[in-house]
Amino acid sequence: MAIYRKTHWTSEIKPELDGKEVTLSGWVWEIRDVGRIKFIMLRDREGMVQVTVKRSSVSDETWDTVSRLSKEDVVSVRGIVRASKVAKTGVEVEPIEVRLLNKANPLPIDIWGNVDETMLDLRLRYRTVDLKRRSNVILFKALSEVVKAMRTTLYGYGFIEVFTPKIIATSTEGGAELFPVQYFERTAYLAQSPQLYKEELTASLERVFEIGPAYRAEKHDTTYHVNEFISVDAEAAFMNYRDVMSVLEDVIVESYRASVDLLSQIGREVRVPSKPFKVITYDDALSMLDKEGIKVKWGDDVPKEGLEALSRLIGEPFFIIHFPTMLRAFYTKPIEGDESRSESFDLVIDGMEVTSGSTRIHDKDELEKAMRARGLNPGNFSTHLEIYSWGMPPHAGWGLGLYRLMMVMAGVRNIREVILFPRDRYRLVP
Amino acid sequence: MAIYRKTHWTSEIKPELDGKEVTLSGWVWEIRDVGRIKFIMLRDREGMVQVTVKRSSVSDETWDTVSRLSKEDVVSVRGIVRASKVAKTGVEVEPIEVRLLNKANPLPIDIWGNVDETMLDLRLRYRTVDLKRRSNVILFKALSEVVKAMRTTLYGYGFIEVFTPKIIATSTEGGAELFPVQYFERTAYLAQSPQLYKEELTASLERVFEIGPAYRAEKHDTTYHVNEFISVDAEAAFMNYRDVMSVLEDVIVESYRASVDLLSQIGREVRVPSKPFKVITYDDALSMLDKEGIKVKWGDDVPKEGLEALSRLIGEPFFIIHFPTMLRAFYTKPIEGDESRSESFDLVIDGMEVTSGSTRIHDKDELEKAMRARGLNPGNFSTHLEIYSWGMPPHAGWGLGLYRLMMVMAGVRNIREVILFPRDRYRLVP
């Protein structure tokens, strides 16, 4: 075992441990010197604890080590926990030994003050340092909790986790622009989503989900687009759009639940939304927007400002359903008897489209027709289409932008804040 | 709610439900006709149940539908559960209504017999159909259970799940060949592993893991290499190689536990290995192999046949530790006082290298020296190296090939069997 392996996180050091020997490892947050006593505030991922070093009770070597410490040095402290009336947390650690594990130079950016949104570019340039900031540590702990909650919810509905290829032969889905990959002698592409694969898997595994990277080669320059993102995809046989909307509601509610405490630690108070979410049709949305002076032509997408206006009016997460069929991808099932509209939905939170989904077409002829209606050549989809002859079940599903959800939950203005190392039009490093 | 939404999986239909109305949806496995009674064996992901259709108790429409059914048709059955002494599972369903949801043509490959390994190419060509095979459904359920168990184990050790970019600017790690990506005006690459990112994250999140795709553009043509695979990566601050080996042991044991029941359903009896795993040094391995007539020069990698021989001798999962330093990547920490050997390990199961790991160098000067010793130019790593000046903790970690582990657990001969849609030198479709 490493001598610096911690026995406890700093947050676990409580007065109840009085008298116990512990090993803590972390970073020097602050060091104060009052002559023959020095106070080290030792930080790790989970919190902070005071280490009280008395000249009289440590070796010359440890005293010497402590005397030369400065901010962000990496140290390991072996010592005895002491309940204390003086220390802020009611507890301190009296070291037996303090080891300097790595000396730190002054940091290139501030990590002690509040997040400065205007300094985002600089912070991303030094992202590894920026991530030491307490609010970032908590944000990314929350993100981990959110995906954990999503999976638990989906397992509960009988979904199986799958991994589909991210290198694909052709631009099968149509629509988005793709990044080309040199795959040995051929040109391949990075998948924009696992859409066709997850649909195909409903024919065997019935209910599948995937949480993995997706790529769009679009030249966006907004606060809510990036070129590599994490897509949460679910697809289920023998369900329609209403059924998967209901699954999605639980996924969203559990995501909020999983992050509400952590986010409150960084001053973000979120309210867990209650089910069922409000549902409006696309036609409703257009009427509501019309009254707000925002004109959207039937058949056009609701623009960002329209989504924002609707969120202001509705005040909580809501679904827009029944989009014009031709506004959606070819695999979207039209409503029977009202074919110009579709069994589709978007989930909107705080003016942000977080999820899109629908019942999918499972009939081969209909699917071919839908491709042709969009100017796509069914011949390019032959290995996908053939599958519909061998027992394709009715199915439905959705794709959720993980970072978009995190962005609205955390209330940050730029999606890059919730991505460890974002990839955008101009950013490929670090 | 969709009319075909199932209330139960077929496996949930037990005699205790006698008299209850249920909706089941799935595929026709078999249909037998004894005049005025027809028996449908209805299959879904979880199992199979007998549907007994009596001419006298169904509508003309349902009788007509059932009369025209053939294998693999997609159907939905609403009916009453009846405990039955005659039916194999002690239970059957008497339908009120049977709907044909999608007609199936004869399948292009056999899914009823045992897996034919020699037909792998053909089976992969029709992978969506091949996945309907019961053994495949169970295999991929097991894979989902395995990643679930891995995450649960890692959460238990305080690891946070992270997502790092798969598009990277340069071939930072050295070694493996990379796939180039056209990233707008620049050439970027697909990441061969999250190695440098996960190391960087130990400076803030301390313990991180990632389960995501990784890419090697190597022209392998073996049964245990593919060009896109799922890498399970863990990295922890304030741990050394021994500490992360211990975490890994738990991850492996829990992976076996999670899949043992499922695998036994497809005739694969696995024994959950017990901790601690056997540990031999690289030098031990060479002596053992020498006695077996397999000569490996000190400093060379142990060849596949050597790993297989060692597995035969040892008979259970084992670690090889202390590899020659120069055999490992630049970030591998040499042993203090025996610098030609390193604090490194491989986990070998059934002759397969499943995991590699090590203590990493956390000192900037040492890291630069290690790069130079391997002919790498530290200037190409400047944004990675600079981080080591700002409080880089000692750390260690490993990378595990998910499909390799699944391959040895499931006892399949070709890694492609455990991948939904494998990507290799010649395979980019489906």
From TrEMBL, chains A, B:
<dbReference type="InterPro" id="IPR004523">
    <property type="entry name" value="Asp-tRNA_synthase_2"/>
</dbReference>
<feature type="domain" description="Aminoacyl-transfer RNA synthetases class-II family profile">
    <location>
        <begin position="140"/>
        <end position="430"/>
    </location>
</feature>
<feature type="binding site">
    <location>
        <position position="356"/>
    </location>
    <ligand>
        <name>Mg(2+) 2</name>
    </ligand>
</feature>
<keyword id="KW-0963">Cytoplasm</keyword>
<feature type="binding site">
    <location>
        <position position="353"/>
    </location>
    <ligand>
        <name>Mg(2+) 3</name>
    </ligand>
</feature>
<dbReference type="GO" id="GO:0004815">
    <property type="term" value="F:aspartate-tRNA ligase activity"/>
</dbReference>
<dbReference type="InterPro" id="IPR012340">
    <property type="entry name" value="NA-bd_OB-fold"/>
</dbReference>
<feature type="binding site">
    <location>
        <position position="216"/>
    </location>
    <ligand>
        <name>L-aspartate</name>
    </ligand>
</feature>
<dbReference type="InterPro" id="IPR045864">
    <property type="entry name" value="aa-tRNA-synth_II/BPL/LPL"/>
</dbReference>
<keyword id="KW-0479">Metal-binding</keyword>
<dbReference type="Pfam" id="PF01336">
    <property type="entry name" value="tRNA_anti-codon"/>
</dbReference>
<dbReference type="GO" id="GO:0003723">
    <property type="term" value="F:RNA binding"/>
</dbReference>
<keyword id="KW-0547">Nucleotide-binding</keyword>
<dbReference type="InterPro" id="IPR004364">
    <property type="entry name" value="Aa-tRNA-synt_II"/>
</dbReference>
<keyword id="KW-0436">Ligase</keyword>
<dbReference type="GO" id="GO:0005524">
    <property type="term" value="F:ATP binding"/>
</dbReference>
<dbReference type="GO" id="GO:0000287">
    <property type="term" value="F:magnesium ion binding"/>
</dbReference>
<dbReference type="GO" id="GO:0017101">
    <property type="term" value="C:aminoacyl-tRNA synthetase multienzyme complex"/>
</dbReference>
<feature type="binding site">
    <location>
        <position position="360"/>
    </location>
    <ligand>
        <name>L-aspartate</name>
    </ligand>
</feature>
<dbReference type="InterPro" id="IPR006195">
    <property type="entry name" value="aa-tRNA-synth_II"/>
</dbReference>
<feature type="binding site">
    <location>
        <position position="356"/>
    </location>
    <ligand>
        <name>L-aspartate</name>
    </ligand>
</feature>
<dbReference type="InterPro" id="IPR004365">
    <property type="entry name" value="NA-bd_OB_tRNA"/>
</dbReference>
<dbReference type="GO" id="GO:0006422">
    <property type="term" value="P:aspartyl-tRNA aminoacylation"/>
</dbReference>
<feature type="binding site">
    <location>
        <begin position="401"/>
        <end position="404"/>
    </location>
    <ligand>
        <name>ATP</name>
    </ligand>
</feature>
<keyword id="KW-0460">Magnesium</keyword>
<feature type="region of interest" description="Aspartate">
    <location>
        <begin position="195"/>
        <end position="198"/>
    </location>
</feature>
<feature type="binding site">
    <location>
        <position position="353"/>
    </location>
    <ligand>
        <name>Mg(2+) 2</name>
    </ligand>
</feature>
<comment type="subunit">
    <text>Homodimer.</text>
</comment>
<feature type="binding site">
    <location>
        <position position="353"/>
    </location>
    <ligand>
        <name>ATP</name>
    </ligand>
</feature>
<keyword id="KW-0067">ATP-binding</keyword>
<protein>
    <recommendedName>
        <fullName>Aspartate--tRNA(Asp) ligase</fullName>
        <ecNumber>6.1.1.12</ecNumber>
    </recommendedName>
</protein>
<keyword id="KW-0030">Aminoacyl-tRNA synthetase</keyword>
<feature type="site" description="Important for tRNA discrimination">
    <location>
        <position position="88"/>
    </location>
</feature>
<comment type="function">
    <text>Catalyzes the attachment of L-aspartate to tRNA(Asp) in a two-step reaction: L-aspartate is first activated by ATP to form Asp-AMP and then transferred to the acceptor end of tRNA(Asp).</text>
</comment>
<feature type="binding site">
    <location>
        <position position="173"/>
    </location>
    <ligand>
        <name>L-aspartate</name>
    </ligand>
</feature>
<keyword id="KW-0648">Protein biosynthesis</keyword>
<dbReference type="Pfam" id="PF00152">
    <property type="entry name" value="tRNA-synt_2"/>
</dbReference>
<dbReference type="GO" id="GO:0005829">
    <property type="term" value="C:cytosol"/>
</dbReference>
<comment type="similarity">
    <text>Belongs to the class-II aminoacyl-tRNA synthetase family. Type 2 subfamily.</text>
</comment>
<dbReference type="InterPro" id="IPR002312">
    <property type="entry name" value="Asp/Asn-tRNA-synth_IIb"/>
</dbReference>
<feature type="binding site">
    <location>
        <begin position="216"/>
        <end position="218"/>
    </location>
    <ligand>
        <name>ATP</name>
    </ligand>
</feature>
